[in-house]
């Protein structure tokens, strides 16, 4: 028999009203009690009824996640975790893609302010300050990845610059000295690319090295073919790099493909480091070293922040100021940077 709200309350040692408040994102529940209830929900595999909740509180129980491209594995993996986190809290999730178009981002946000979607988790590609101005007031928005820098909405993400610094430091620690960066953004609209480029440059400077701009390769997008094309150009230099730090794992996989095609041994003659922690990288040849953001933590924190906003709206209280929630990352060191 499926677990009931009563079962969860008994397991957590709280009232059914408290369980309901946690499921509905009411902000008045303390963190320790909230976590105890969520643990009980997980243990009992409790699934609240969206239809019943909608009739009871007049809400749809529907959130949405907006990402650039669902065929990019990072966003597919992230979406899986956000779906799980939303369902754990009794919400359904609508997943939408913008195909990397700032215009589609604006249109998608504008049509999300209707009666069905209660709140939005957004991974943006366009200038986020302009995108969110005025729109965040209509329906709660939580930003993942990109940061507005102006505190318009809650932001969940890793420190891209610190992660890139750590990745480049690792390459230097293996004895490499000509480290290329693949994935600079030509239009400078993606703050992510700029931050990762900055972390790369700072690590080189900390090691007493000068950034060789010939090794900083701009790409039109962040797919495997872009990485392969960038690597082809780097290998045609008179003094090619002995290491590549790619801004995404897909770029890094393209770099590996071109290196293998040219007969360049990785990691003996070239070290390759990616960024995103994709599962695919654990099965490439050689396996790909990468910066691995804690995607489950990003999902949990973004859903929690959104429901906290919704709970405050339901109670009619004054919304808290936007917060920036840092999420950890690790370096998954594998075959492509072994020494």
UniProtKB/TrEMBL annotation:
CDD domains: HTH_LacI, PBP1_LacI_sugar_binding-like. Residues 3-57 form the HTH lacI-type domain. GO terms for molecular function: DNA-binding transcription factor activity; transcription cis-regulatory region binding. The keyword Zinc-finger does not apply. The keyword Transmembrane helix does not apply. It holds the Pfam family Peripla_BP_3. Keywords: DNA-binding, Transcription, Transcription regulation. Transmembrane segments: none annotated. This is LacI family transcriptional regulator. It comes from Labedella gwakjiensis. The lineage of its organism: Bacteria, Bacillati, Actinomycetota, Actinomycetes, Micrococcales.
């Amino acid at each position: 028999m499926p677990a009931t709200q009563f079962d969860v309350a008994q397991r957590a040692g709280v009232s059914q009203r408290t369980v309901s408040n946690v499921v509905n994102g009411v902000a008045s529940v303390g963190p320790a009690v909230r976590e105890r209830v969520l643990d009980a929900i997980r243990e009992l595999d409790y699934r609240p009824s969206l239809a019943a909740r909608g009739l009871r509180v007049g809400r749809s129980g529907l959130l949405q996640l907006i990402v650039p491209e669902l065929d990019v594995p990072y966003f597919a993996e992230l979406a899986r975790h956000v779906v799980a986190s939303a369902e754990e809290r009794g919400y359904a999730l609508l997943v939408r893609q913008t195909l990397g178009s700032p215009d589609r981002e604006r249109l998608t946000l504008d049509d999300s302010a209707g009666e069905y979607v209660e709140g939005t988790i957004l991974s943006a590609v366009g200038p986020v300050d302009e995108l969110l101005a005025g729109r965040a007031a209509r329906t709660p928005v939580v930003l993942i990845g990109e940061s507005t820098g102006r505190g318009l909405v809650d932001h969940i993400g890793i420190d891209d610059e610190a992660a890139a610094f750590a990745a480049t430091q690792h390459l230097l620690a293996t004895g490499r000295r000509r480290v290329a960066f693949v994935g600079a953004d030509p239009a400078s609209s993606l703050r992510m690319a700029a931050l990762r480029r900055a972390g790369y440059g700072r690590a080189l400077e900390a090691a007493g090295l000068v950034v060789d701009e010939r090794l900083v390769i701009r790409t039109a997008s962040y797919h495997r073919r872009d990485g392969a094309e960038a690597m082809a150009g780097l290998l045609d230099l008179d003094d090619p790099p002995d290491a590549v730090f790619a801004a995404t794992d897909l770029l890094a996989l393209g770099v590996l493909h071109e290196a293998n095609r040219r007969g360049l041994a990785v990691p003996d003659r070239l070290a390759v480091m990616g960024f995103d922690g994709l599962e695919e990288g654990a099965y490439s040849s050689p396996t790909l070293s990468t910066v691995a953001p804690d995607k489950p933590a990003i999902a949990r924190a973004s859903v929690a922040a959104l429901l906290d906003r919704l709970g405050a709206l339901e109670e009619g209280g004054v919304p808290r100021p936007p917060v920036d929630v840092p999420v950890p990352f690790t370096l998954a060191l594998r075959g492509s940077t072994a020494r």
